[in-house]
Amino acid sequence: MNVNIHESWKNILVDEFNRPYFRALTDFIKSEYKTHTCYPPGKQIFSAFEYCHFNDVKVVIIGQDPYHGVGQANGLSFSVNDGISHPPSLMNIFKEIETDLKIPYPKSGNLERWAKQGVLLLNATLTVRAHQAGSHQKKGWENFTDAVIRSISNKKSNVVFLLWGGFAKQKAKLIDAHKHQLLSSGHPSPLSANRGYWFGNKHFSKTNMYLAENGSKPIEW
């Protein structure tokens, strides 16, 4: 597995790469990509760490699994490649931004533009077998991404963690709430959003307000 990450993450994560679980995970992923169609493409597995450098992390958005449809996943949580129609959760994210910040709904669902501003778009599991949601869960990815969250919490301050839905909220225990801002709400999926647990959370304006108050440049959502 080609660990394609920006230099700034290497010292932070070097211990993880050397742990037995990560070696076993690497063997599993190599075998899966050889024998099945998996997403995202191999060179994009670590895109979140390539586009968002450790020193720049201001916001962390935690997803669960990459999209498992053709051409969707690009290594950034909730993001899809240019020209791909927006999945329902992403549509609801953009609708909330529209209402919250009064900015127009974007054409592209590619969130690379957020990542380059310091938004770490982190899925708990970084790979998936085509059309099989959750197929790479409990193989070691969660150990790795939990270590990422812990490192950000320990080594940085004034980061906004956006915890959407039950799964992401469980990650709160890894984060020092005295040093960071945790914003929780329902998941943007239609099931949760249509029950009133997503729309109106104003997480995007709240994030920018917190960043500005703590001397950071707000995100251009």
Model description:
This protein is 38% helix and 11% strand. With 221 residues, it is of the alpha/beta class. The longest helix is centred in the first third of the chain and has 16 residues, at 20-35. The two termini are 32 Å apart.
Give a quick rundown of the structure:
The chain is an alpha/beta fold. It has nine helices and six strands. Helix 7 links the parallel strand 5 and strand 6.
Enumerate the spans where pLDDT stays under 50 for 5 or more consecutive residues.
none
What share of residues is helical? 25-40%
Number of strands: 6
- Identify the strand order in the major beta sheet: 3-2-5-6
What is the number of helices?
9
Q: So what's the overall shape?
A: globular
Radius of gyration: 17 Å
Strand content: 5-15%
What is the arithmetic mean of pLDDT? 96
> Could you spell the SSE succession in H and E letters?
HHEHEHHEEHEHEHH
Query: Tell me about the biggest sheet?
Result: 4 strands, parallel
SS-derived structural category: alpha/beta
The first-to-last residue Cα distance is 32 Å
How is the secondary structure organized here?
Layout: H1 7-17, H2 20-35, E1 38-39, H3 47-51, E2 59-63, H4 88-101, H5 112-115, E3 119-123, E4 128-129, H6 141-155, E5 160-164, H7 165-169, E6 181-185, H8 190-193, H9 203-213
Parallel strand pairs: 2-3, 2-5, 5-6
Antiparallel strand pairs: 1-4
